[in-house]
C-alpha cells in the first residue's frame, strides 16, 4: 500500500513539474522576450517603427497602415516594461462599442471577470489580472475619443 501511495505521489509531482508555464503575452508575443526580438517580431507582422514618435532610450512606437491602432512599447535596459495599443476614432459611439468588444473578448480569453473601477458613459476602465501581468482596457471619450489597451507584465 505504501508503494502504491508513493508511486501515485511521484506521478503527480512529475505531471505538475512537466507543465509548461504560459508566459504573459501581447497578441501571441511573449513579453519576456528582449526589446530587439519584440521589434523584429512586430516588423515581421507588418508594423514599422515610427522614429519621430519613439524615444530611443525608453519607448518604441509602431504603426501599420493595415491596423487601426498604434502600438507603444516601453522598455528599460533590454526588458519590456509595458505595451499599449492606442486607437483613435472620430465618434464616441465607435469607441464605446470597441471597448465592449475588447472587454468581452479578454473576458472569454482569460476566463476572468475584470475589475472595473470606472464605468461611466465616456470614461471606462476594465482591468484583468492575469497570472503574469495586468491588462487594462481604457476608454476616454473627451474632445478626441481614445481607446487604449495596456499590457503590464508583473515583475
Describe the structure concisely for a colleague.
The chain is α+β, with helices and mostly antiparallel strands and 155 residues long. The chain is built from three helices and ten strands; from the N terminus they run αββαββββαββββ.
Q: Would you give an account of this structure?
A:
The chain is an alpha+beta fold and 155 residues long. The chain is built from three helices and ten strands; from the N terminus they run H-E-E-H-E-E-E-E-H-E-E-E-E. The chain has helices spanning 2-18, 35-44, 92-110; strands at residues 25-26, 29-30, 48-49, 59-63, 69-76, 79-88, 115-119, 123-129, 133-140, 146-153. The strands form two sheets. The chain has an eight-stranded antiparallel β-sheet with strand order 3-4-5-6-10-9-8-7, covered by helices on one side. The protein has a two-stranded antiparallel sheet with strand order 1-2. A hairpin with a 5-residue loop joins strand 9 (133-140) and strand 10 (146-153). The N and C termini lie far apart (44 Å). The model is unreliable at 1-21 (pLDDT under 50).
Gyration radius, rounded: 20 Å
Please indicate the percent range of residues in DSSP E strands (runs of 2 or more).
Answer: 35-45%
Number of helices: 3
Q: Which structural class fits the helix and strand makeup?
A: alpha+beta
Basic shape: globular
The end-to-end span amounts to: 44 Å
Tell me the helix content.
25-40%
Order of helices and strands: HEEHEEEEHEEEE
Q: Averaging pLDDT over every residue, what do you get?
A: 84
Show unreliable segments.
1-21
Mind summarizing the main beta sheet?
Answer: 8 strands, antiparallel
Strand order of the largest sheet: 3-4-5-6-10-9-8-7
Strand tally: 10
Amino acid at each position: 500500500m505504501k508503494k502504491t501511495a508513493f508511486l501515485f505521489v511521484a506521478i503527480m509531482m512529475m505531471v505538475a513539474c512537466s507543465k509548461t508555464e504560459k508566459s504573459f503575452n501581447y497578441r501571441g508575443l511573449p513579453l519576456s522576450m528582449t526589446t530587439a526580438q519584440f521589434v523584429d517580431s512586430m516588423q515581421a507582422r507588418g508594423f514599422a517603427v515610427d522614429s519621430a514618435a519613439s524615444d530611443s532610450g525608453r519607448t518604441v512606437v509602431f504603426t501599420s497602415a493595415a491596423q487601426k491602432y498604434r502600438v507603444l512599447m516601453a522598455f528599460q535596459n533590454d526588458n519590456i516594461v509595458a505595451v499599449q495599443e492606442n486607437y483613435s476614432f472620430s465618434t464616441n459611439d465607435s469607441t464605446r462599442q470597441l471597448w465592449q468588444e475588447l472587454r468581452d473578448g479578454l473576458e472569454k480569453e482569460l476566463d476572468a471577470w475584470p475589475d472595473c473601477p470606472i464605468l461611466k458613459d465616456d470614461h471606462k476602465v476594465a482591468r484583468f489580472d492575469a497570472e503574469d501581468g495586468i491588462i487594462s482596457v481604457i476608454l476616454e471619450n473627451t474632445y478626441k475619443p481614445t481607446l487604449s489597451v495596456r499590457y503590464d507584465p508583473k515583475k
